[in-house]
Amino acid sequence: MIGRISQKGLTILTLERSDKANALTAGMLEALTAHLDEVAAGSDRAVILTGAGKVFSAGADLDEARAGLAVSPLWERLSARMAAMPCLTIAALNGTLAGGAFGMVLACDLRIAVPQASFFYPVMRLGFLPQPSDPRRLTALIGPSRAKIILMAGQKVPADQALDWGLLDRIVAPEVLMAEAERLAEGALAASPEHVAGIKALC
C-alpha cells in the first residue's frame, strides 16, 4: 500500500489506499519507515511524499487505532526518520491531511497542497494524545495559539489559511501538484548528496 518510484536521485513515496482515504495501518507505517531508511542509506537527494486519490490521509485506520495503533511508537519512529533524512523532503498533499498523518508531514522540509485540502487533528474529540513531537513541530511552524486551535479547539483549517499561517509553503493546482514538487526538488537533484546534507544541516 506504499508505492515507490526512484529515478535520478529522486524517490517518490505514495500512500496507495485511496478506497480508505489512505488511512494508515501499522504495516504502512513500517513500510514507509523502511523505505526512508533505504533512501537515507543511499545517494538520493530528494524525497516526495504524496497520496493516491483525493485525500492525502485520514490518519490512523480506525479499527487499528482502537486496537492500539493510536498509541503505537511507530508514529514517532516514522516522523523521527523523516526529520533526520539527509536529503530534501517534500510533502505534496493531494488532499486533506488528518490525525496521525500530520507527524510525517510536519517532519518534511517543505509542504505544498492543492486548494481543496484541509487540515485537522481531532485528538481532543477522539480522546487520544497527539504523538509527542507533533505539537512541538506544529508550534514551531505556526505558533502556540494556532497549534492549539488545531489540537485543542479541533478546528479544520483550509488550505488558504494554512498557507497564511505557515503550515503550507505553497498552494498548487491538482493537475500540476507533482510537477511543482519535482520542480522544487531540482536544486537538490543538481547537487551532490554531501552538499544537500550540508546545507540541510546548516538550516
Polypeptide structure, described:
The chain is α/β, with parallel strands linked by helices and 203 residues long. It has a single domain, classed as 2-enoyl-CoA Hydratase, Chain A, domain 1 (Alpha-Beta Complex), CATH 3.90.226. The chain contains 10 helices and 10 strands. The strands form 2 sheets. The protein has a 6-stranded mixed β-sheet with strand order 1-2-3-5-7-10, sandwiched between helices. The protein has a 4-stranded mixed β-sheet with strand order 4-6-8-9. α1 runs parallel beside α3 and α6 crosses α7. It is globular and about 45 Å long.
Q: Give the number of helices.
A: 10
What is the H/E order? EEHEEHHEEHEEHHHEHEHH
Low-confidence stretches: none
Gyration radius over CA: 16 Å
Shape: globular
Q: Mind telling me the CATH class? A: Alpha Beta
Instruction: Name the CATH architecture.
Output: Alpha-Beta Complex
The percent range for strand residues is 15-25%
Class from helix and strand fractions: alpha/beta
Question: Which short descriptors sum up this protein?
Answer:
203 residues, 10 helices, 43% helix, 20% strand
Helix/strand layout:
Blueprint: E1 2-7, E2 10-15, H1 26-40, E3 46-51, E4 55-57, H2 62-66, H3 74-83, E5 88-93, E6 96-98, H4 102-106, E7 110-113, E8 118-120, H5 123-126, H6 133-142, H7 144-151, E9 157-158, H8 159-165, E10 170-171, H9 177-189, H10 193-202
Parallel strand pairs: 2-3, 3-5, 4-6, 5-7, 6-8, 7-10
Antiparallel strand pairs: 1-2, 8-9
Helix pairs in contact: 1-3, 6-7
Give a nutshell description of this structure.
This protein is α/β, with parallel strands linked by helices. It has helices at residues 26-40, 62-66, 74-83, 102-106, 123-126, 133-142, 144-151, 159-165, 177-189, 193-202; strands spanning 2-7, 10-15, 46-51, 55-57, 88-93, 96-98, 110-113, 118-120, 157-158, 170-171. It has a single domain (2-202), classed as 2-enoyl-CoA Hydratase, Chain A, domain 1, CATH 3.90.226.
